[in-house]
Amino acid sequence: MSVPGSDLDLRLVGYFTVVAEQANFSRAAAVLHVAQPSLSRQIQRLEEHLGVRLFDRTPQGSLLTEAGRAFLPEAKALLQAAHQAELTARDGATPSEFTIGYVEDLVITHAVRWLRHRHPTARIRTRHLAWNDAHALADRRVDALVARAPLPFPADRLRLTELWTEPRVLVVSEDHRLAGKESVTVDDISAEVLPQCPSAVPEWSDFARLEPRPDGVPAPSAPIDYESFEDKLDLVAEERTVLILAAGDRRPQLRPGLTTVPIEGIDPVRVVLATRSAEAHPLIDDFRDAWSSSGTPASPQR
């Protein structure tokens, strides 16, 4: 049994709407990136299938016939319905909720907007987390996490996908001896005191303190009390310590009295997407694609 309209080629319908909008086969061919003769043949095929002439060619361009004017709104509705059917089918196999965690000052807006556009019926939420929230993924408060690596908590049960990298900088007081330099090296900061975080895994602590050092001498540290990142910035402003951060971390710029200096010869920070390695959420692959689809790797962050 033949289904009415089952032989109608949606690609040809799409070509028709573009020619109708441009009122000119040459301009329409340029928009569609096809050769004009090929486009003319495709429209002719559509006309033969419908049994009506859709366009009248005139010196002023290609004008819709009465049949073409009648068909145009139906054609647009047909294309929109086909697009919605595709989205509905895709989301029908997808959980209705997806929560994305992010930490510090990382901006994920562009990628989240792309994902919401791709899955308009899914409930996609974002949640800002403490930088050392070790249980957000395990407790299923989030399905994915965007953070800077190495993570300050065990990541052996997580899958990490690198999104982009950032160079690192030294954060110092504006009155510090190194303030204003074009750049510094590990040797330049060998005597500087760096804070320790006893609750973080050694891998994170070593990365934050540039250990092990080339000369094998541990980075100087002192028993400095702090409860938050803002507390550490105050300690830097008082010249009781210095910090090493990703260049993309804008939080020190919001604190008066601080400045940053690039550090040469050290590994950059990797911004990663962390997910549960034992579970594959249907939206995770699309969220990974969102970063490459949103331009350069760093563009979602800016």
TrEMBL record:
Keywords: DNA-binding, Transcription, Transcription regulation. PROSITE patterns: HTH_LYSR (PS50931). Pfam families: HTH_1, LysR_substrate. One of its GO terms (cellular component) is protein-DNA complex. The keyword DNA-binding applies. Residues 8-65 form the HTH lysR-type domain. GO terms for molecular function: DNA binding; DNA-binding transcription factor activity. Transmembrane segments: none annotated. Belongs to the LysR transcriptional regulatory family. This is LysR family transcriptional regulator. It comes from Streptomyces daliensis.
